[in-house]
Specification:
Length: 116
């Protein structure tokens, strides 16, 4: 796979993962009626399901790291080159920011809204 294709996979995958995590957190909180345990359970199940789907989708393309620490650990073990790792981290950070902003806006919140 070309580096560009792998970077797009990492960026899009990270964006979708963060959108799922933040979005399921917002939705779980809204639907739980103040029950923190129910909100946490809803967030955990949705996040796990999204992660499985994203790994199965993007794993063959980029390795489905979706996390700079995972990428750096893989580079330290020779799984990806340090040059590619730097590019992955940039794509992951950009994807994370985009995913959080999309989730906030999708639920009627200002992008990067601060929550208690």
């Amino acid at each position: 796979m070309t580096l560009a294709r792998r970077l797009v996979a990492e960026g899009v995958g990270t964006a979708l993962l963060l959108a799922a995590v933040v979005g399921s957190g917002i939705m779980g909180e809204r639907l739980a009626g103040g029950n923190v345990a129910v909100a946490l359970l809803a967030n955990t199940v949705a996040t796990g399901a999204a992660l499985v789907a994203l790994i199965l989708t993007f794993g063959p393309i980029s390795g489905a790291h979706f996390n700079p620490v995972v990428t750096l650990a893989d580079a330290s073990q020779g799984g990806v080159s340090w040059h590619d790792a730097r590019a992955y981290v940039v794509a992951q950070i950009a994807g994370a920011l985009a995913g959080v902003a999309v989730a906030d806006v999708m639920f009627g919140e200002p992008a990067f809204a601060r929550r208690r």
